[in-house]
Amino acid sequence: MEEHPVIYLKAEQSSYLNCPDIRIRDVSSVYCRDEETAEKIRNIEIYKFEKDKEGRAFLSILYLIQEIEKVISRGEIRNVGEQDLIIYYRPEQAKTNPWLLRAKICFICLSCFLGTGISIMGYNNDVDMAKVFSQLYETFLGTRPDGPTFIELFYSLGLTVGIFLFFNHTPGKKITNEPTPIQVQMRLYEQDVNQTFILGASRKDAELDVDH
What we know:
Blueprint: E1 6-11, E2 14-17, E3 21-23, H1 24-27, E4 28-32, H2 35-42, E5 45-48, E6 55-60, H3 61-71, E7 76-79, E8 84-89, H4 98-126, H5 129-141, H6 150-166, E9 169-170, E10 173-174, H7 181-203
Parallel strand pairs: 1-7, 2-8
Antiparallel strand pairs: 1-4, 3-5, 6-8, 9-10
């Protein structure tokens, strides 16, 4: 009796591609003991975008299984990845102008710098840090300061070092190999966006599934 091959799929939730002809290899890892069968599955075309137009496609893993069974009649398919997939397509020639990209980066950095500075100054003003520094100076040195003192300098340096340590990043280099808080939040944001797209596509019946 001929043994049916076991095929494992591990699809990613989202894939970013610049080739309009989408094959299973672009969105999912494929494993099978029979390498010839695995390679045949990887080359199955599952979607085609308009070449010069950006777009998104939503696919169910069941759709991939259906397409595989059209090519591989005998076999057991096991999914160990995502159940719903998003494919983001952007043509190669649609790359952003490098000067425009630099301008966007500068604008974001400036906005973050000014916003953070105003937030820190607002907090210091709310808790009256100037009065706290004055009281500390008088407590340890016995005299009331007439203006800014070395305490403000140490506070500013400590705040800067604390920000670098919290965000796990110094200019041009990470302090440790762990992801930074910003990277973690961006990953969570990406997952939320993908889930929102998937839910919307499911409700609008815009997802490629076995019913289509």
